[in-house]
Amino acid sequence: MSKLESADTLEGDELLDDFVDGVEEAADFVISDVGSDAEESIKPSTKRKAVEAADIAEKPKKKVKTKKQGHGVDASALFAKEGLPLHDCSGWQLKGDDNISLFIRDFLFPSDAAKFFSKSSNLPPGAPKVLVLASSAIRAVEVCRLVRKTGDCKVAKLFAKHMKLKDQVEVLKKDTFPIAVGTPNRIQKLISDGGGALRLDELDFVIADGTHKDQKERTLFDVPEVRTDFFQLLHSIKESAPRVRFCIY
């Protein structure tokens, strides 16, 4: 399996797999009835009980699978290691999913939001102002719903579970999307194999959905394959559009 295929796999529904195995109960042990000779029959039964109890004590119990905890990766340190400067977002105090649209509109574009995030936007097709990167297709769907509150504009869904690559290319060529949300692997494919359908010349910000945790308590930076795709994409964007600013929400 290639690296890109591996990352695509991680973008699917299997990120929601989080079953807990039950502990197998010990089988009931039946002691045979005592015969006519009480003294002879009771002693072997008592001995069997002791042996069976010892077997149960020695038999290892099945371990219950628990949720894997996030590794607590220092995202800022990863950016520094990659030589990618982070945009200073310390002035934004409202955290949480419900405020990501306000973060884009009121913090990143305090004076130009109405100009860009509306039906009357003059942006060319397939040229977003903001690109939000999520860890999986499942999370990207949720982020699309959240950022729609930014304004009266379309949001491009750029992840593998939504549309085929060729279909996404056709849509990007025709429609205007001031905001695009997707997974690193699919967006990299659109840039490299999309024939210029996804344009970077209008892009101002790339936002990492880096504080959200999935059901296994993992962030965008905790899954090695996704993290690798993420930074490869950022380097590719920086090379093509050096003025773009990166930030973590």
TrEMBL record:
Upper taxonomic lineage: Eukaryota, Fungi, Fungi incertae sedis, Chytridiomycota, Chytridiomycota incertae sedis
Q: Which GO terms describe its cellular component?
A: 90S preribosome; nucleus
Q: Please report a single Pfam family linked to this protein.
A: CMS1
This chain's protein is named Protein CMS1
